[in-house]
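BUG: 3D viewer hangs when loading the predicted structure for this chain

Environment: internal workstation, default settings.
Expected: structure renders.
Actual: progress bar stalls at 90%.

Input used:
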Amino acid sequence: MNTTTEELLEKTSIRKLALRWGIPAMFGQFFNPLYSIVDRIFAARIPGTGEMALAAIGVCAPALAYMAGVGGASCMSISLG
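Structure tokens produced before the viewer hung:
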């Protein structure tokens, strides 16, 4: 039985919805920094250029995340009209 999101939001209690959608979101927020830490560990271990690679990750990763966030929000708002 397929239910739409609108039907689900109308018929399901807030507590069940919070658990159903909140727990995966919390796991995502937990694993996201973990990926960043592991990336930095691997980059720092590159012989000879590890320090430069670590600095590049520290500068570029936040800039790219900001660019994707702002660009994605702009495209989303334009498409929603």
